[in-house]
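On clarity, I found the account of how folds are encoded harder to follow than it need be. Since the whole study asks how a given chain folds, the encoding of that fold should be made plain. For illustration, here is how one protein appears when written out as sequence plus structure tokens:

:::
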Amino acid sequence: MKLLTPRQQEILEFIQSHLQETGFPPTRAEICKALGFRSPNAAEEHLKALERKGAIQLTAGASRGIRLMGTQAASAGLGSSLSASGRSLLAGLSLPLVGRVAAGSPVLATEHIEQHFQVDVSLFKAKPDYLLKVRGLSMRDAGILDGDLLAVKALQGLPEARNGQMVVARLEDEVTVKWFERQGHTVWLKPDNPDYQPIEVDIRRQSLTIEGLGVGIIRGF
């Protein structure tokens, strides 16, 4: 990797800390707010410079499409982070891969498990319990595409989820991956793609369970 300027190093360290805290890269807006840039364009130019120097890789069209490279990823304790390739499926932890979930049945029911993968736990910010195959593009701008495997840390229910976390939610009989936000008795399950609308849930009237938290992505398996 080529030598970074002090400002570029500052941005890189912020990306690393954000990944360590949340499991996902920051948006351009979050970089601007944290580092005092006046516009997302300024953040974008610095990110492109970091990419040219081999510190990160950018995914076009994804607001969180930032992948740490090489020793930068290792120092963040996240392996290849959000875009871990099939080459990172190393011996370490055996995780069940869950495909489509039948209505009303447990996520980890035997009939839903397609196979098991051996994974390197250092790829993720927290130890996952299973992998869920992502369907659709509602989380596209978080860098999560159709067919990706979301590493999930299992939870026991709604109280354990916090605002801003990526959750695997069961709404009635449907399982979906979204950003979580709660105010009082109202929960919003927010996509990361402007083509999709947030799902508003009144937990007094609708059955909502948080099955788990997204802690990383595996792609190219």
Q: What stands out?
A: The longest strand covers residues 208-218. Residues 35 and 180 are 25 Å apart (CA to CA). The two ends are 26 Å apart (CA to CA).
